[in-house]
Automatic annotation (TrEMBL):
It comes from Cyprinus carpio (Common carp). The lineage of its organism: Eukaryota, Metazoa, Chordata, Craniata, Vertebrata. One of its GO terms (molecular function) is transmembrane signaling receptor activity. Residues 1-84, 89-168 form the Ig-like domain. PANTHER family: FC RECEPTOR-LIKE PROTEIN 4, IMMUNOGLOBULIN FC RECEPTOR. This is Ig-like domain-containing protein. It comes from the Eukaryota. SUPFAM superfamilies: Immunoglobulin. Pfam families: Ig_2, Ig_3. One of its GO terms (cellular component) is external side of plasma membrane. One of its GO terms (biological process) is immune response.
């Protein structure tokens, strides 16, 4: 029987091990023969054959066969097992039930590796901007509690507003995916209805013409500020409401 670790579907650069197990009662030592894609050529005689950095050329159908060392017994050739090798994956991040939240709402960030679910451990990050305006990804202090792929906040607070990402790793040495897409979580306090006022009021605006934004409510408009989520997926405070 052929088994493949970490999975039959792996990614370029991963460490992959093929193992041949033979159920032969009374046989203490086997000589193993490995075959690929139906070829008669033996490419390995080890019980475990490891690709330290697998490539697309290693993909294929593998089978093994055993012969008793110093004896006459042989095994049947195993069924073929297919190894698939794909490009290095990017983790995929989604939000449930929604990314626009009020304080106290529950929310779950879900990180996945599409097409592969075996053996992954997940980490969680926020996208931050330092004082010199350089971007960096900051590992969440409690990232480990989302290691299974779901990072749940049972009661969202204002501090949870931000841009989030994840990645995944598996194997020894660890193999990492690319960082995921970014997802915004926006948490607001319980408040009276607020209106966003755009001036001038029209459906189309131009880059060379200034634009004024303001937030207003019936109680105290000075309490509100304008923040923006830009095309580069960065959450920013606006130093001025005029752009």
């Amino acid at each position: 029987k052929v088994s493949i670790k970490p999975d039959q579907h792996v990614f370029r650069g991963e460490t992959v091990t093929l193992r041949c197990d033979i159920d032969g009662e009374g046989v203490t030592s086997w000589k193993y023969s490995w075959y690929k894609d139906g070829s008669d050529s033996v490419f390995s005689e080890l019980q475990e054959h490891t690709f330290s950095s697998v490539t697309e050329s290693d993909a294929g159908k593998y089978s093994c066969y055993g012969a008793e060392r110093g004896g006459s017994r042989t095994s049947n050739i195993s069924d073929e097992v297919t190894l698939t090798v794909s490009d290095k994956p990017r983790a995929v991040l989604s939000v449930s039930p929604q990314k626009w939240l009020t304080e106290g709402d529950p929310v779950t960030l879900i990180c996945e590796v599409k097409g592969s679910s075996t053996g992954w451990t997940f980490s969680w990050y926020t996208d931050t901007v330092s004082s010199d305006y350089s971007k960096r990804y900051q590992l969440l202090s409690d990232s480990s509690r989302g290691a299974g792929g779901n990072y749940t906040v049972s009661s969202a607070a204002l501090k949870h507003t931000g841009v989030y990402m994840c990645d995944a790793k598996r194997g020894k040495p660890p193999y990492y995916t690319w960082y995921s897409n970014k997802q915004l979580l926006w948490v607001t306090g319980v408040s009276p209805p607020v209106s966003l006022i755009i001036s001038p009021s029209r459906t189309q605006h131009f880059t060379s013409v200034s634009l004024s934004l303001s937030c207003e409510d019936q109680s105290n408009s000075d309490r509100w500020r304008v923040r923006r989520y830009t095309d580069n997926k960065q959450l920013e405070d606006c130093s001025s409401s005029r752009w």
